[in-house]
Amino acid sequence: MKQSILRGLPLWLGLIYFGPAFASVTLPQEARVPGGIAIIPLTGLQTDITPSAWYKGNRVMVLSSEGTPHQRQSRWIAIAGIPLSAKAEKKQHLRANATSYYFSVEPKEYKAQYLTIKNKRHVEPNPEDVKRWRREKAKMTAAYKIWSTPNLKKVQFDLPAQGPLSSPFGLKRFFNKQPRNPHSGLDIAAPHGSPIIAPADGTVVDTGEYFFNGNTIIIDHGHGLTSMYCHMDSIDVEIGDQLTRGKQIGTIGKTGRVTGPHLHWSVSLNNTRVDPILFLNK
Question: What is the CATH number of domain 37-103?
Answer without folding.
Answer: 2.60.40.1590
